[in-house]
Amino acid sequence: MVNVIRPYHIPRLLNPYHILRFPYRLPYPPYCPYYPPYTHTPLNTPNIQMSESFQKLEKIGEGTYGVVYKAKEKKTGKIVALKKIRLENESEGIPPTTIREIILLKNLKHSTIISLKDVIYNNEKMYLVFEFIDMDLRQFLDKVYTSDNVLQPFVIKKMAHQLITAIYFCHSKNIFHRDLKPQNILVDSNGNLKLADFGLGRLASVPLRVYTSEVVTLWYRSPELLLGVKYYDSSVDVWSAACIIAEIILLKPLFPGDSEIDQLFKIFKILGTPNNKKWHNVETLPNYQKEFPKWNPMDLYEILDGEKDLIDMISKMLIYDPIQRYTAQQSLEHKYFKGVEPIHE
């Protein structure tokens, strides 16, 4: 019989290998003899009463696994974001996406990544306490668009650099985000980006495992995922990042498909229909059809109104073949970022 994770297991589970080797439910006890012993500082605070410690101010978001509130910490007066996790069915335990997010954020400490302050469990309720940032990138771009403004080149460069830095830091820790989109990128009052929502994040396996291809929101999903590849790596995050940077320039999505096939065709119309010459063995992928319409590539410089070096970097991040596609590190080393100070942890 396989038991599920309970909240009182969390202090024992802060080594990411113990969590991320099991994508759905963990066996009890969560022990694997193939990994060395580890030590940790407990993250959860079991005896805090939410009503005594935090004052909920307003609901700011809701998703499959919980509700997010803007709240004030009564002791310090600081504003935080409280993510209340749904625990409606005790037999199901804590949602696996929540477990992953806790473990990944515990091990990802960087100025470009949202900070998880605490995990609180009491009275059969669970809360994640985050630093509060009141706007995501989608809201920010919509605000710019509706005001008929455009973003200045230095703002675009700053945002692109921060986004790629966050992705590079994740990849340097062998972590794929797998759900990059403007709604999962927060923008603070100074215009700085912070990567958030690691519920679909995964630790890279060696050798690569067969992961689900049903990751990444459609508009930011890489062509290899759309074509049914089963083995993939961090290059899917780079593709998503390129789409997001293009969206920062355009103030609208680059590839706004309304179905998987429409998404593919939106990509093909701009980048050209791929074949084995452009992308090694693409015609062997499960969803590839020889009957696909044959489009010639368009000139990205005509589609994206930006600096020449920026468009060149985006084009390299949008290379079809994942092996040839730029990595996050190569993107940071591109001449577009020449003279930009590295962002330290």
UniProtKB/TrEMBL annotation:
Where in the numbering of this chain does the Protein kinase domain appear?
54-337
Q: Which domain of life is it from?
A: Eukaryota
CDD domains for the chain: STKc_CDK_like
Does the UniProt entry include the keyword Transmembrane helix?
A: no
Molecular function terms in GO for this entry? ATP binding; cyclin binding; cyclin-dependent protein serine/threonine kinase activity
Q: Any signal peptide, and if so, which residues?
A: none
What cellular component terms from Gene Ontology apply here?
cyclin-dependent protein kinase holoenzyme complex; cytoplasm; nucleus
Q: Which GO terms describe its biological process?
A: cell division; G1/S transition of mitotic cell cycle; regulation of G2/M transition of mitotic cell cycle; regulation of gene expression; signal transduction
Q: Which reaction does it catalyse?
A: L-threonyl-[protein] + ATP = O-phospho-L-threonyl-[protein] + ADP + H(+); L-seryl-[protein] + ATP = O-phospho-L-seryl-[protein] + ADP + H(+)
| Protein name (Swiss-Prot/TrEMBL) | Cyclin-dependent kinase 1
The opening ranks of the lineage are: Eukaryota, Fungi, Fungi incertae sedis, Microsporidia, Nosematidae
